[in-house]
Amino acid sequence: MALLVLKQNQGIRSVSYALPNKHYIPVDMAYLGVQNVVPPETAEVFVPIAAPSGLIQATVTRK
What we know:
Helix content is 11%, strand content 32%. By secondary structure, it is mainly β. The strands form 2 sheets. The chain has a two-stranded antiparallel sheet. The model has no long low-confidence stretch (mean pLDDT 93). Its EC number is 1.7.3.3. Pathway: Purine metabolism; urate degradation; (S)-allantoin from urate: step 1/3.
């Protein structure tokens, strides 16, 4: 996104982001007879946990 902003707007020198580091965990749907947590890489339904785990920050600047 930052690269696109810089590409389309020559007057902008830098773009910064500070985004919450949210985690999503697979929902255990075994009570419905649906396997969603084993193996973990096949999970399709996720729920966010309540609190973010800090911020992910990035700045992209022109040379």
